[in-house]
Amino acid sequence: MSDKIKFGKSDLLVAPVSFGGNVFGWTLDEKESFRMLDALVDNGLNFIDTANNYSYWVPQHRGGESEEIIGKWFKQSRKRNQIVLATKVGGQMGDGSKGLKAAYIRLSIEASLKRLQTDHIDLYQSHYDDLETGQEETMEVYNQLIREGKVRFIGASNLEPQRILTSNQIARANNWAEYISVQPLYNLYDRAKFENEYLPIVQEGNLAVMSYFALASGFLSGKYRTEQDLEGSKRKDMVKGYLNERGLRILDALEKVADQYQLSMATVATAWQINKPEITTPIVSATNSTQLKDIIKAMELKLTSEDRAVLDQASSY
């Protein structure tokens, strides 16, 4: 099993892959989620990323379902101390509430802590930006929560690079804790925005990177190659934009490398990110033991320079 790695400027030690908690309470029910969480720990994965609004998009859901399941598992398993826990605030809840105002963040952290049945969040992240709230207000309340011991570190998810920069400038000016991480969309298909816009601030600020949709919503697993393959899939609207000449070229390259190692395309696509020094830990989800095994194998796979060149060229933009 791969060794744990240091998460940016923090003292958090995390596995080379983090697990996306959006599946808990969505595509995995409570019993299946508990089984998956136990399997994660058994296989050396210790970093779980969720959000307060997962999974509000499911009919009859209100948000908070993922956190509730994780919290019940913490209570039952007593494995909270084996997990680096990341969650988010700011995204829309089922009742329409959202944002990064201080009062709202305070209400949200208490609700998250209660659902998660824990007294602290290891990494608390701004899920989406709130242009109607001053950045100083947001950074100040985060730092109050850090001083109170409810949050250890803070990060930014879907904030534009310049907004992350200015937030951290405000923090430095006030001797406050800064965002230590970014969570951008990044995978073999979705490369341009991260590489051209986020990477410069990541390198300048020594920020950790936990990329989401590392498998492009399942497209990079190779199971979707035609419109017909998408029929009946919950991810149909998320994947159909990848079905084009470039997307299929990427799948062909993935298949070529995967066949060489007799591994799955998902394993190779994940390993491509793990092998990139600028990516700290890609976020990948699994809904069954086969998919989890693919993640484990990705942490152990060392791609050659020739492998990386094949994938980089096929996914060039």
Describe this entry's structure for a reader.
The chain has 317 residues and is α/β, with parallel strands linked by helices. Helix content is 42%, strand content 13%. It contains 11 helices and 10 strands. The protein has an 8-stranded parallel beta sheet. Strands 1-2 form a two-stranded antiparallel sheet. Helix 3 (102-116) links the parallel strand 5 and strand 6 (121-128). It is globular and about 50 Å long.
Topology record:
Layout: E1 5-6, E2 13-14, E3 18-20, H1 30-42, E4 47-49, H2 65-77, E5 84-89, H3 102-116, E6 121-128, H4 135-147, E7 151-158, H5 161-173, E8 179-182, H6 192-205, E9 208-209, H7 236-239, H8 245-261, H9 265-274, E10 283-284, H10 289-300, H11 305-314
Parallel strand pairs: 3-4, 3-10, 4-5, 5-6, 6-7, 7-8, 8-9
Antiparallel strand pairs: 1-2
Helix pairs in contact: 1-2, 2-3, 3-4, 4-5, 8-9, 8-11, 9-10
Quote the distance from N terminus to C terminus: 34 Å
Strand-and-helix sequence, N→C? EEEHEHEHEHEHEHEHHHEHH
Give the helix proportion (percent range): 40-55%
Mean pLDDT: 96
**Strand arrangement across the biggest beta sheet:** 9-8-7-6-5-4-3-10
Summarize this, please?
The protein has 317 residues and is an alpha/beta fold. It is built from eleven helices and ten strands.
